[in-house]
């Protein structure tokens, strides 16, 4: 019996393992949404398609499985763009069904007609039209396979009238998800081992590409007395119960993480594509190992570039290297790491009941949140508090917009994570700027019964932008935000809300917020003058901040300079 293309597409999506479709219904996908309604898929109706893409990405990043977005022609599908870009850069396997106008009108600048392929092929692994009904299952299946195996976005473009076409659907196309292993050849492995043996001090710099190699990295670090530095994205996978971990490199990192790379004779960069060249060690030997050969040497000059998966390569390397006797390099960085941790803890202490530092909120949440909680943060300062003040224990999960760096990803991505894991505590750490950008989807939490916990670091400013301007020595401009009481706003939407302005109010409010069964929002007025301190303070940064102080005084903003000093340096 023949089926409509809409039915075939939905069936292929189900067989690919998807459980949810995020979107807003309308004209060119009405036949598709009808087929979804007749299936086991759950339609998640969002208020803005961008939020739907973030949610799909949050779900797929956490599960590793396929999720789906569906958009109408023209503006409907275009609204997904930023969220789809986020999914692709995060490596989340997401399938977008992007519809277009009827084929009879295509090519004539019909209202809402958009060349979806030109839009989406630049940030997807697969982007193709269904040009004939007989292609429907084949195209969707190959799109899903590409998203799942290449870890990113696939796009299937369907003209609205194509959904109503029929086909016998006789060919049974299947999805394959092979998992090959890969390592450098024997000669390359011998060269790598010789470099390790010749180096007095070795450090490992591991990224998310080494997420499955924690045990192998630890065994290597034990044998050659090497500290391990990790990227921010690798925190949840490589930090837990790892005695060789000394933290993070980069502007969001810590002193031990930076010095472990600077002081090493040899750095092994493993599954790491950290983008900021200035944080790689100068004039040192760097060996880079990555599964993607195009990544080799694109961030920093390297001495040796090898292709291999982290787990297999490190397992093969271990018996080839000699054990090192001196542990001075490792011990020095471990000692500094403990000092760094103590510093984070001290930053989170609150001695002024009339003031709430954001670190105080993060430290308290770290102690009160579940051991297997999922945390999703907005980009900006809330991301810093997550990465520095929340502990990874092997059960907790973390998601940030570290590659795309987009606003508004926080609670939207957390929606998908909560739908994927309804029995887990999922916490969205939001800035007031990020939350308000897609604030309409607070209503989605209520309509779709998503019991998400949202905390707002309410500082009435685009905090990270303000900090960037001040570090440049500029007086900040256009960063101030006029905000409502977010707790009252949440209550108007049907969400339980708590508003906190003083430190002694925070603990009881946070306890009640975490206990609440349904969606809940905790609005915390935090210090607006908070600086995000880099792991090392350069003279130029001090000079730039001082220059801001001078300019702010001349601009009549003396009170802000006093607050900046009091709230960051005099506590």
User: Pairing-aware structural class of the strands and helices?
Assistant: alpha/beta
- Secondary structure: helix percent: 40-55%
Multimerization state: single chain
Q: What spatial order of strands do you see in the largest sheet?
A: 3-2-4-5-7-6
DSSP strand (E) fraction? 15-25%
Task: Report the strand count.
Answer: 20
The first-level CATH class name of the largest domain: Alpha Beta
The CATH superfamily title of the largest domain: Thiamin diphosphate (ThDP)-binding fold, Pyr/PP domains
Gross CATH architecture of the largest domain? 3-Layer(aba) Sandwich
* Average residue pLDDT: 91
Q: What ranges have pLDDT less than 50 throughout 5 or more consecutive residues?
A: 539-562
> What general form does the structure show?
globular
Produce the secondary structure layout.
Layout: E1 3-4, H1 5-15, E2 20-23, H2 30-37, E3 42-45, H3 49-63, E4 67-71, H4 75-78, H5 81-90, E5 94-100, H6 116-120, E6 126-129, H7 136-150, E7 153-159, E8 166-167, H8 186-198, E9 202-206, H9 214-224, E10 228-230, H10 235-238, E11 245-248, H11 255-262, E12 266-270, E13 285-290, E14 304-307, H12 310-317, H13 328-347, H14 358-368, E15 374-377, H15 381-389, E16 397-399, H16 410-420, E17 426-431, H17 432-437, H18 442-447, E18 453-458, H19 463-471, H20 486-493, E19 496-500, H21 503-515, E20 520-525, H22 539-554, H23 558-568
Parallel strand pairs: 2-3, 2-4, 4-5, 5-7, 6-7, 9-10, 9-12, 10-11, 12-13, 13-14, 15-16, 15-17, 17-18, 18-20, 19-20
Antiparallel strand pairs: 1-8
Helix pairs in contact: 1-2, 1-7, 3-5, 3-16, 9-12, 11-13, 14-15, 14-21, 22-23
Domain Thiamine pyrophosphate enzyme N-terminal TPP-binding: 4-119
Organism: Aurantiacibacter rhizosphaerae
Protein name: Ubiquinone-dependent pyruvate dehydrogenase
